[in-house]
């Protein structure tokens, strides 16, 4: 009976350990996801064009190059934020109104990593 409990103990912790290791590999599921990339504001500054547009928003880094032509307002309105910390742009749309929760949710599809604290 004792050895059965021992085997159950080993099996339980093997499964728990494997699940924990797997959870680290799924992006965004843990505090420090394995493979999560970090970028500095200098890295982001190199992508400051409409066709190569990165932004830092609220500590996350995004590549919006593919999204630029899809944005409801003309690309020029976003273009000024390419290569920059753009939390203010996202929160004000350039005139003081925050984006809708749906717009904020859309950003996740373009997230490429987190902003490195300097
Ligand atoms: C950071 C710079 C950005 C600026 C300055 C900006 C500005 C604007 C403006 C002027 C409008 C149209 C006017 C209005 O709806 O009130 C708008 C609408 C919208 N934008 Fe942006 N935008 C930015 C980034 C983004 C990003 C990154 C996304 C999503 C990935 C996004 C998604 C949307 C959506 C879905 C709308 C429709 C209205 C809403 O849902 O709030 N925008 N934006």
Give an overview of the whole structure.
- The chain is elongated.
- The protein has five helices and six strands, in the order αβαβββαβααβ.
- The chain has two domains: 1-36, no CATH class; 38-115, Roll (Flavocytochrome B2, Chain A, domain 1), CATH 3.10.120.10.
- It has helices at 2-25, 41-45, 75-79, 87-92, 101-106, and strands at 38-39, 48-49, 52-57, 60-63, 84-85, 111-115.
- Strands 1, 2, 3, 4, 5 and 6 form a six-stranded mixed sheet that branches.
- By secondary structure, it is α/β, with parallel strands linked by helices.
- Residues 24-32 have low confidence and may be disordered.
- The N and C termini lie far apart (57 Å).
- A hairpin with a 2-residue loop joins strand 3 (52-57) and strand 4.
- Bound molecules: protoporphyrin IX containing FE.
- Residues 64, 67, 71-73, 77-78, 81, 86, 89-90, 93-94, 97, 99-100, 102-103, 106-107 line the site of protoporphyrin IX containing FE.
